[in-house]
Amino acid sequence: MTHTVSVTRKTLRRLSLTMAASALALAAVAPAQAAENGKFRLGIVTFLSGGAAGPFGVPSANAAKVVIDQLNAGALPAPYATKGINGAEIEMVLIDENGGATKQVEEFRNLVQRQKVDAVVGYISSGDCLAVSPVAEELGAMTVFYDCGTSRLFVENKAPKFVFRTGLDAAVDNIGAARYLAATRPNTTRYAGVQQNYSWGQDSWADFTAAMKQTLPKADAVESQMPKLFQGQYGAEISAVSVKRPEIVHSSLWGGDMEAFVLQASARGLLDDATAILTCGESALERYQGQAPNGTIVGARGPFGAFAPQNALNTWFTGVYQNAYQMAPTYPASKMAQAILGLKHAAEKAAKAPGEVPAPAAIAAAFKGANFESVSGTVQMSRADGHQALQGISYGEYHFDAKTKKAELKNVKSFSGSCVTPPDGTEAQDWIKAGFPGAKCE
Amino acid sequence: MMRLDRTELCLIAAAVVLAAGGLIAPGWLVFLLTMAFAKALVVQGVVMQMRAGLVSFGQGLFYCVGGYAVGMGGHFFGLTDLAVLLSAGVLAAMLLAMVLGLLLTRYRDIFFAMLSLAFSMILFGVLVKSPQLGSTDGFNVVSWTLFGWSPGKDAAPTTLLAVTLAASLAVALLLYRYVQAGVGVLCEAVRENEVRVEYLGLSPRWLLYSNYVAAAAVSALGGGLTALAAGHIDPEMAYWTTSGEFVFIALLGGTGHVAAPFLAALVFAVVRTYAIEFVPHSWQMILGFTLLGVIVFLPKGLWSLFSRAKAKGAAAS
């Protein structure tokens, strides 16, 4: 008996030793799969686990899958009818964004140097974007940020070459929200805010209050609550806001937090008297099912999701996404599609012969300042020296029809990009405080 | 002239081989090695305390202090010299540990674990509440110089790997001697029977105190090197899951040898990066199973694979 045990132990020990050794050996040998197979290797990085996975990461990854499948099948409407990217089949390498910026820097290097991807599209977290951006420049790796909203991206990366952002600056959301309130509720005098206590929430509130001082100078911020990220229970915050009797409750909460807040705030009567304006509200449009009060103002961080305009690309995208996942695409999905289409546009413009995969520098040169068609209309890469997309933003009221069980948006107002975006070289806060100099609004 | 024994020569040889390997290794592997060794230094801090019977679930505190000292030194004080930045981190961590140690060394077991965790979460909370430090987004670390020499972007990763290996080697040699010296042996005695140590006329509390401060210094060095390599710092460094990762690696390696944390950090980095590549949706599960496997089959950590002869002798007796 003891003999058997010791033999098993020995075997196991040897086995695990071999496994550990081979794992290390694998690490040293594996980098060989260079992208010399004529395919376009595309790294996709988004949250596949953690709190941001459900509302943002998974819809984005799903969108990437369906868009890449369709591109490889050559099934897109013009001007994207060529197969894959410039005729080269796209090979997707999917990576989880969870785990913090330090780890993302490591995984980004692995993507570029080990997996030899031709471009990387991804990143929701602003911290990850800030950390990855200098590494992308250092490695000369073509990188498109599709969602992260930090205003500091192109302030820290002053002379971008390989880094692009097809999503909008977060300041746009809050300037847009203040403009929407000024246009639809000019008599507002009292507003309050509920934000998550981290960079996103803090920046959102700072931008929103500064913008409100300009657009509705008579309105006062009567209360600001900063519950922690993923808190889920907002009883205390809702009570604190309720007693101040605001007319408007601004919130940059997202995902499950936002849905929980809306549910609890409407159950406690806060939203009977006050109207919520939710900068990320659109991502739950299909999920409220009437639990958000009618009239709640929602945004989609740009002309995405339900705010996307009617065009051939959007009809195609909504169709294939709905077919694959039995639901309409929300804004993170649209933004992912936009980033991939932008990259395809630039790569094809840069390519000299069909089937060729252009070098990162060539793609970057073609991407700079490009105008491309997207699911959200025409995108102009006209800010941050041609590296940042300029687009407008829309807000609208959520209305749920109990009979048809369909949600729709009413009173939608859109603001053009130059109306809500700070000019190059100006920090958002300075631009807002100076009274939006140079803004062109229709 | 200091005489070196076989283990020390082996450690030196390993460091030299790795540094030489760094010259021919692909860029991603150089980075992975740098990060693994920098993290291993933090794990050394955890292991030092484990040997004295204390599990720190808050070693991220000193990791973060080391990292932020590097980041803030560059950003706010215009310091770029690598040695100065790292020393600043170590010094700051030691000062902090000297204060916190007064309280923490009164506690043992789960109370020590929870209190150490609490302090690192306080730092996390303070950083999140500081927009001038970038709140949760953190900020980028300025590029460093070495005694006035500024490596280009091509030479920087390999140079940093060499620096990290040199620091790891120095710490490993020091710790190797420390473990064998009176104070190191006494740490184990404190773990086994604290009362008896007191009867010997020694103060377990001051032993643990000096051990705690030394562990903080080693961990801060790891944090500083991580910040220099990654080029970015954020409050996540002080978050409890980061500290948990260090305990994970410590358990993976075991406390059997001063080289165990380095080996474990390397295996951890390799397993994680390939798990992320091959199973992007459930890589955490692979890590979990790895730890489970080690706990079940190698309760003394990965290092017990190398001390088989000893284990055999123990089984016979």
Automatic annotation (TrEMBL), chain A:
Keywords: Amino-acid transport, Signal, Transport. GO terms for biological process: amino acid transport. The keyword Nucleotidyltransferase does not apply. Residues 41-387 form the Leucine-binding protein domain. CDD domains: PBP1_As_SBP-like (cd06330). Belongs to the leucine-binding protein family. This is Branched-chain amino acid transport system substrate-binding protein. It comes from Novispirillum itersonii.
TrEMBL record, chain B:
Its main location: membrane. Keywords: Cell membrane, Membrane, Transmembrane, Transmembrane helix. The chain crosses the membrane at residues 48-70, 82-104, 110-128, 160-179, 212-234, 246-271, 283-303. CDD domains: TM_PBP1_LivM_like (cd06581). This is Branched-chain amino acid transport system permease protein. GO terms for cellular component: plasma membrane. One of its GO terms (molecular function) is branched-chain amino acid transmembrane transporter activity. It comes from Novispirillum itersonii. It is found in: Cell membrane. It is a multi-pass membrane protein. It holds the Pfam family BPD_transp_2. The lineage of its organism: Bacteria, Pseudomonadati, Pseudomonadota, Alphaproteobacteria, Rhodospirillales. InterPro entries: ABC_transp_permease, LivM-like.
